[in-house]
Design brief:
Helix content is 30%, strand content 21%. Strand 15 and strand 16 form a beta hairpin. InterPro entries: Ala_racemase, Ala_racemase/Decarboxylase_C, Ala_racemase_C, Ala_racemase_N, PLP-binding_barrel.
Length: 359
Amino acid sequence: MGKYIINRAAIRHNAAAVQRAAGVPVIAVVKANGYGMGLEWMAATLHECGIRAFAITELSDIAPLQDAVGTDCDILMLRSTALAVEAAAIVGAGCIASVGSAAALGALSDAARAAGTVARAHIKVDVGLGRYGFSPDDLAGLEACFAADDVAIEGIYAHFPGASNLGDLEASRTQLARFVACCEALGARGHKVGTRHMANSPALFNLPEARLDAVRAGSAFLGRVITAADTGLERVGILEAPVIDVKDFPADTPMGYGGAFRTKRATRAAIVPVGTQDGFGVQVKPLSDFHQVLAAGKRWMQKSSETVTIEGRPYPVLGVVDLSLSMVDVTDGEVAPGAVARIDINPLFLSARTPREYC
């Protein structure tokens, strides 16, 4: 197992850049263990940078997040739920609930009534992601949210399914227009929708018109946003591990489970104790053009789609990445046990078990 190195200064730099670009309040999304950075550390660091609103998706994140940022912050649960026990937990913790259906509204209203309080909530509108949320055309269902005596609507939001698709931003603009029209229709009926937010990290830079009243940012804090804009963001995070051994193999040696990969020549392999349990080899890599698709296909045919940098030089992985280790082709280099391997991974897939080192 390796360790994940996180640059504190880069996170703070990115937080300032995000706030500057947004020009409106930022809701920091710290789901998935703070996007792999560590929930408590990431939230506390962003709190130090002046952010006072956070968003999560799991009930188990509420207590540690509150411990990290104190009581002066809003916490939005980015998951509409019709389960009574979950609604009660959200209300009991004083968090802002997401309401994306009549059933979720009913569960939240019942929980608030039982607790003798008024639940805070944001309405979730579905403009194309297709998970949960009211249709923007369901005005009757949306209006019912404002009629619930035990629920106070403080905001309304939607989520882009493809704001990172630089080849089809018109689809995202159409979705934004549907959301804005929905808000205007509710306003015309006398309802105060509160804070409108739709822009996520890609939309923050790819669709400036989507910034509205607030912006939800997550991956932007890590400097990992698909955009053609000059963001000024710094890429954060690198996985490090020592080479634990070096082994020689003759040509035509099968490697890995099922022997799907065979060496094409006499090969020297460095063994690095980093695998899929550390998030290596499982990350999603967007393919934006025909040439990249062809290149990806070629790498797949050669069974060497991943690389590891050892002492500043990139080397290809032999075969596929295993659960706990990788075999790296160092035939053309001088690599010995103890050399440091550095791997750029998507921290969203980084196991919570992998140690974090903040520098």
